[in-house]
Design goal:
It is a single chain. The chain is mainly alpha-helical. The chain is 64% helix and 2% strand. α12 (199-211) packs across α13. The longest helix is centred in the C-terminal third of the chain and has 16 residues, at 263-278.
């Protein structure tokens, strides 16, 4: 049996991790170093994030905000998970970062305020939702899923029609699955995006409609459930839990060759059948 790879970053000093993050910017090593720094919640690491956020270098400022965005403490040895650390102090850093002169720093701040929402950020997030940079609009779409206010919903409705596929995808996910709000405008947007050119957007729209029990999702699934369908369709069928979908699901199970599908896909199919059977 193959041994799990050791996390060498656990043994590295903060300064070593900072050097890796700055030297290998944007790489897997960069993000792994940031994750390790985020898990070292302490006055010392908070001070490091604050110093970096005040640097003249945009990369150092971005790094400081990425550390602040999910700064937390590991639980005791042997326990899984972590607890958030210095919420007020890190939110202050992130709010200030929204007004930085460099787009990459603003992106780091937006990302952080998705992980650590603050009401004071909403107005600036809505303003940035029309930014020229699609990557920044994508960060905003991800973050706004954590804000239930009407202004956030309005911005997500607009972003769900964005020209960029990734922005449209995340805004559709934010509206459909992250938000609990159910309005005619949201349902019509999700129905429209069920016809989108991008398959991921269509999938998120379908799940969002199923979350709201929209009968159009049931009609759609009755026609599209088969051995070639995606997990999106199976998850939507489970959420709808409609006996009207049982025949299509059972036919799918009967027609497929289990060796040709993954174990996760198969588990989702069985979960959908079970949910629809309970209500039959």
């Amino acid at each position: 049996m193959k041994k799990p790879a050791k996390n060498l970053n656990r043994k590295r000093t903060q300064q070593q991790l900072v050097r890796i993050a700055l030297r290998d910017w944007g790489s897997d090593r960069h993000w792994c170093a940031i994750v390790e720094l985020q898990l070292r919640g302490s006055p010392h690491t908070l001070g490091l994030a604050q110093r970096l956020a005040g640097s003249a270098s945009w990369r150092r400022r971005s790094l400081g905000l990425y550390i602040a965005s999910q700064l937390r403490q590991r639980k005791h040895d042997g326990d899984f998970g972590s607890i958030e650390y210095a919420m007020d102090e890190t939110q202050s850093l992130l709010l200030a970062g929204l007004h930085d002169a460099h787009d990459e720093v603003v992106r780091a701040a937006v990302s952080g305020l998705g992980h650590r929402p603050h009401p004071a950020a909403l107005g600036e997030l809505v303003r940035l939702s029309t930014h020229r940079d699609a990557l920044l609009r994508w960060d905003v779409a991800v973050a706004l899923g954590r804000y239930p206010e009407p202004a956030a919903i309005e911005a997500l409705l607009r972003l769900a029609g964005d020209a960029d596929d990734l922005v449209r995808n995340w805004a559709t996910f934010g509206l459909g699955s992250m938000q609990d709000v159910d309005t005619p405008a949201i349902r019509e947007l999700l129905w429209k995006n069920l016809q989108d050119r991008d398959p991921e957007v269509r999938g998120e729209a379908l799940v969002g409609l199923a979350e709201r029990g929209d009968p159009r999702a049931t009609d759609y699934l009755a026609e599209h459930l088969n051995a070639d369908c995606r997990v999106f369709e199976l998850d939507a069928a489970e959420k709808l839990a409609s006996p009207l979908l049982l025949d299509a699901l059972r036919r799918t199970a009967r027609d497929l060759k289990e060796s040709e599908v993954g174990s996760y896909w198969l588990a989702r199919l069985h979960a959908a059948i079970a949910a629809c059977t309970v209500t039959a």
